[in-house]
Write a structure and sequence with these properties.
The protein is α/β, with parallel strands linked by helices. 73% of the residues lie in helices and 10% in strands. Helix 1 packs antiparallel against helix 2 and helix 2 packs antiparallel against helix 3.
Length: 191
């Protein structure tokens, strides 16, 4: 119900009370005046109470609006904070996934090198016309990233040449593996 409607209703009730009071008093002038004054006082009181109630409703409405605005601001701030945290965590997850993929990629690449390096180095040694690679064995250690030359050669010059040929092959393959030459030199070297 609107405030204006409650004022009208209050005034109407006050008028009825006044009319009833007049009728009951037998309509004497003094009684009529007293009843009229009482009716006007009651009407004024009712109007004052209605105005106070209207103001209280209006004040309560303003307070509710303010509290809703404050709650909206608080929720907006919380939502922005949550969004920032989600973006940060997503970035960290992306970095972790990227690092894991890079690690797996490197492991696959290294495994491929392990499989390919042993026969590749052996073929490079055998293909060299000035080197007798008959007694040279090639082993690859994927955990240590090392290609090892084992066995024997006749001279120090052949050992040095085997090192050079193997290193050139690894360099051409852009391998991260190191070369370890364990070849034995001399006529007494085991064949």
């Amino acid at each position: 119900m609107k405030i204006a409607d409650s004022k009208s209703l209050t005034a109407a009730v006050a008028s009825l009370v006044a009319v009833f009071a007049l009728g009951a008093a037998g309509c004497s002038d003094r009684t009529e005046q007293a009843a009229s004054n009482a009716a006007q006082g009651a009407a004024q009181d009712a109007q004052n109470h209605a105005a106070a109630a209207g103001q209280a409703v209006e004040n309560a409405g303003q307070e509710v609006k303010e509290e809703v605005r404050e709650a909206d601001e608080a929720l907006g701030g919380a939502a922005r904070q949550a969004g920032a945290e989600i973006r940060e965590e997503a970035g960290e997850a992306k970095e972790a996934i990227g690092g894991a993929v890079a690690g797996v990629t490197q492991n696959v690449k290294d495994a491929g090198q392990v499989v390919a390096l042993t026969p590749g180095v052996k073929n490079a040694l055998v293909s060299n016309d000035t080197l007798d690679a008959t007694n040279i064995n090639v082993e690859t250690d994927g955990e240590k990233n090392v290609v090892m030359l084992k066995g024997s050669v006749k001279t120090q010059k052949e050992k040095d040449l085997a090192t050079k040929v193997a290193q050139q092959y690894l360099k051409g393959q852009k391998s991260t593996f190191k070369l370890q030459n364990d070849l034995m030199v001399g006529a007494g070297a085991a064949r």
